[in-house]
Amino acid sequence: MLALLPLFVLGALSAPLVMRRGRSGFAILALIPAVAFAWFVLHLPAAFSGKVYTMAVAWVPQLVLRFDVRIDALSAVMGLLVTGVGTLVLIYSTRYFSETAAHLGRFGGVFVAFSGAMLGLVISDSTLMMYTFWELTTVFSFLLIGHYSDRATSRRSARQAILVTTFGGLAMLVGIVMLGEMEGGSYSLSGLVSAAQDGLLGAGQGALLPAATVLVLMGAVSKSALIPFHFWLPAAMAAPTPVSAFLHAAAMVKAGVYLVARLAPGFASIPEWRYVILFTGIGTMLVGGYRALKQVDLKLVLAFGTVSQLGLITLLVGYGDAGVALAGLMMLSAHALFKSALFLTVGVVDVAFGTRDLRELSGVGKQMPFVAVMAGLATASMMGLPPLAGFVAKEAALEALIGGDAIDTATWIFIALGSALTVAYSLRFWWGSFMSKPGVEPIPAGRRSRVTYTVIGILAIASLLLGILSSWWGHLLEHHAARYPGHFGHLALWHGFGPPLLITVAVLAAGFVLFALREPLTRRARQFPIRAESFYNVTIRGLERLSGIVTGATQVG
């Protein structure tokens, strides 16, 4: 397994040479994540049987730095998503960029380097090594988001993303050091969770454990763009569409979700953990869903929708219940497939018609029927329609929460509200992308490619198959869900007639109503008086003024 990481390094360094072949060089670079994907596929039988792959390598023993690898069910799922979607996005890039596009060598190298860093993050069992890869993804994402370096919006978005996620990452590092010392200095991620489960972590140390927990969660919350850090992700849509499809569907933003899912079996019983997860998860789900309804740029509709669904997934995997966690892991898998397919769909539409503004697009479905159908499948999964993967995940979440205590009841009600918003903005996306609109002249389609169509089709059909084969996939996810307290149940397309199905029907009906009333609702809605991005801008300006004052006072010549 460790031999794969040098392969990513070699691919990143050789990318400028490979890309001299033109955009077809992306196909060669795609072989690197494809090899890693094949390794995870070969490892799947062992993962399904509950076996854990481990490897320990001493790096700097004097500093307790070890490169310990641990691949269990959760790591296997994340590894498959990162390498599989990464391979498809690189293949898609062979036809997305024009032959005259600049800096393709740099783009290819940074993309492969980011993929390797993300892979290292999900297989590391050392918290310090995990943090190292965590910050590498931050740096590489900065370079990818700012790929169009001649554009002020790209530079500003990249700077905003790196400042926000680095702030959270530094807070997380403090928490990691505190937890590592509480654990006895081993800095083992699996050991940390086991010690927390056994009640041995932070015993007799007062508020140190809650403080460390909140600091670690700050890193996860900032990385996964949860409130109050959610604003950086929509701004990052200034990046090329392949970057959005990979970083914001299957990779970077999933790092925070992964960390929450990894730690939750041991830490979810800490009150501070639950407060943070409930507040950020529910708040992000509702804020993101509402703001997605107001967007006219197709990419921003998906961006705010991603923010909303990251809130939902974080809420589910961090809730601390086995059944809810199983639903969250299914939603994590489904989201990577349908959201990457939809981002790539926007790229195809943008390249062919020269706009992403849904007010200017009309009759696209007639000119691109295959893309419209495949995007319809992905959209249906995002809405939670059977028999797609998104439906299975939401049904499982409702099944696990209904009939519980007051917090469980409030949680499923908020999930239902957020899901209604999801249905509404999903309809808005597909309608805006493909339907004919009165008074809007269709734009003749420009450059199109079977390669990009095929990649979108693979991801959309995979979302359908994941729903149909949910019981089989659930056997893998159950190995991680079993680490949570409670009974995890099972994933299935059909749970029979009952409250979850009735709520799903009500959610779909409410979503269609919201879509029909979207214009008057959003037109009359007032802007929320407190905006996180405004606070960020004020903070940055204040720091710049403070640095000028300090420099003037201390550097006197």
Please, could you describe this protein's structure?
With 557 residues, the chain is an all-alpha fold. It is 72% helix and 3% strand. It is built from 24 helices and 2 strands. The protein has helices at residues 4-18, 25-29, 31-48, 73-96, 104-123, 127-145, 152-182, 189-197, 208-223, 232-235, 241-247, 252-267, 271-292, 298-318, 322-353, 364-367, 369-383, 389-401, 406-434, 450-468, 470-481, 499-516, 518-524, 532-554; strands spanning 53-60, 65-71. The protein has a two-stranded antiparallel sheet. A hairpin with a 4-residue loop joins strand 1 (53-60) and strand 2 (65-71). It is globular.
The class by helix and strand makeup works out as mainly alpha
User: How many helical stretches?
Assistant: 24
- H-E string: HHHEEHHHHHHHHHHHHHHHHHHHHH
Cα-based radius of gyration, to the nearest Å: 23 Å
Q: What is the number of strand segments?
A: 2
Q: For the residues shown, what is the average pLDDT? A: 90
Distance from N terminus to C terminus (CA atoms, Å) equals 55 Å
Considering DSSP H and I runs of 4 or more, what fraction of the residues is helical? over 70%
Spatial order of strands in the largest sheet: 1-2
Proportion of strand residues: under 5%
Identify low-pLDDT runs. Answer: none
Question: Largest sheet at a glance?
Answer: 2 strands, antiparallel
